[in-house]
Amino acid sequence: MKRNERLSIALHALLHLALKPEASMTSAEMSACIGSDPAVIRRTLAGLREAGILQTRKGHGGGWQLARPLADLNLKQVQDAIGARIFPAPTRTESPGCLVEQAVEAALDGALAQAAAFLDARLEGIDLQTIAADVARKHAHIKVPS
After folding, report:
1. pLDDT tens digit string along 111-144?
2. d(CA 109, CA 47)
3. Sign of CA dihedral 13, 16, 17, 18
């Protein structure tokens, strides 16, 4: 299954910001790190600002900054803030009058709902500080503030 690009961008940006907690990063600077257009980054991160995960500063030296410690953030909170579900939503019925399709969709929707609930619970248990620590372990020259 292809990962959700918006979620990947958001997590990538959050972890880059964590490496420089006192500094801000502009959308253009993040674009260079992430390899996405600055406008896409701004649209993606807007939900994180609205959720109180990021804050922005205007003017010289301005940009995006973490508003909360990484240890207080989990993958589900980020997913919810940007409205980007990893797991697909139930499918749209194409032939609502077909009894076979109704039975198939009911079975699939139930299974998808259970899988989504399991995934959401798992995402709640993964905090961003743990991911940042994993980055630091793999790259000894990187220091991640706690």
Report:
1. 888 888 999 999 999 999 999 888 888 876 666 6
2. 28
3. positive
Place of tokens 């990063």: 25
Give the pTM: 0.80
Contacts 24+ apart (CB under 8 A), 85-91: 85/4, 85/116, 86/3, 86/4, 86/7, 86/119, 86/123, 87/112, 87/115, 87/116, 87/119, 88/1, 88/112
Residues 133, 135, 140, 141, CA torsion sign: negative
Q: What is the Cα–Cα distance from 74 to 100, expressed in whole angstroms?
A: 40
- The stretches of the chain forming alpha helices (DSSP H) are 5-19, 27-34, 38-50, 75-82, 99-124, 128-138
Q: What domains appear along the chain, each with residue ranges and CATH number?
A: 5-87+127-138 (1.10.10.10)
